[in-house]
């Protein structure tokens, strides 16, 4: 088989997790979903937004990125 430019794709099987949040956090998450809808004209549910929010948070944490590389 010839060498392909595209590497083998990573595992993309979603993992389901369940969390409990305090009332003020769910209120803030619902407010964020409303702000998202106002900005983009499309309603997304809080559970659909959370994975992207977490990914963005982890990507922006430089200390975590450095520690993870070790």
TrEMBL record:
Protein name, per record: Transposase
InterPro entries: DUF2274
Organism, as annotated: Novosphingobium subterraneum
Source organism, top-level taxon: Bacteria
């Amino acid at each position: 088989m010839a060498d392909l430019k595209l590497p083998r794709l990573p595992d993309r099987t979603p993992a389901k997790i369940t969390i409990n949040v305090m009332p003020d956090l769910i209120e803030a998450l619902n407010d964020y979903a409303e702000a998202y809808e106002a900005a983009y004209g499309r309603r997304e549910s809080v559970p659909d937004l959370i994975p992207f929010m977490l990914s963005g948070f982890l990507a922006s944490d430089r200390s975590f990125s450095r520690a993870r590389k070790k």
